[in-house]
Amino acid sequence: MLIRLTAVTHMVNFSQRYVGLDYTVDNSNELTATAPPNGRFAPPGYYMLFIVNSAGVPAVASMVQLTCGGDANGDGSVDPLDSGFILARFGCPVGTGDPSCDAADQNGDGAVDPLDSGFVLARFGSCLGGLP
Ligand SMILES: [Ca+2]
Ligand SMILES: [Ca+2]
Q1: For the whole model, what pTM was predicted?
Q2: Distance, CA 104 to ligand 1 centroid (Å)?
Q3: Is the dihedral of CA 41, 11, 57, 48 positive or negative?
Q4: Which residues are near ligand 2, the ion (C-beta closer than 5 Å)?
Q5: Ligand nearest 124 Cα, by number?
Q6: Which residue, 3, 7, 19, 46, has fewest beta-carbon neighbours within 10 Å?
């Protein structure tokens, strides 16, 4: 399960969120959890990732950061600004330590090219917060 890191203001916690995760365990007892399908289930940000045993006892949480597929410029939403970010980086070398080039490779194929803009266009609005 994921529990979002939150902030309380005026005695109300507006960003409180618990997200159950689907998971599988293979023959070597390796557990693989599936991330929420989009930002409506779990908005981008930092979460505590807990594994809970059959008695309901949680392990010590690991901190994880959920990012939004298509959010190339990292502002928390997928919109035309992300396409512009990618367009400005066409041909940018990926995997050489330049974080803006790595972020622009949205489809993860190792190159920053028009396919990355198409990836983002198909996801406009996919990282909006709120209930599913
Ligand atoms: Ca964005
Ligand atoms: Ca790419």
Answers
A1: 0.62
A2: 11
A3: positive
A4: 105, 107, 109, 111, 116
A5: 1
A6: 7
The CA 111 to ligand 1 mean position distance, Å, reads 19
Per-residue pLDDT in tens (0 to 9) along the chain, 132 residues = 999 998 888 888 888 889 999 999 999 989 999 888 777 788 888 999 999 999 999 999 999 988 778 889 888 788 999 999 999 999 999 999 899 999 999 988 999 999 999 999 988 887 765 443
* Structural domain boundaries enclosing 126: 70-132
33 CA distance to ligand 2 middle (Å) = 25
CATH number of the domain to which 28 belongs: 2.60.40.10
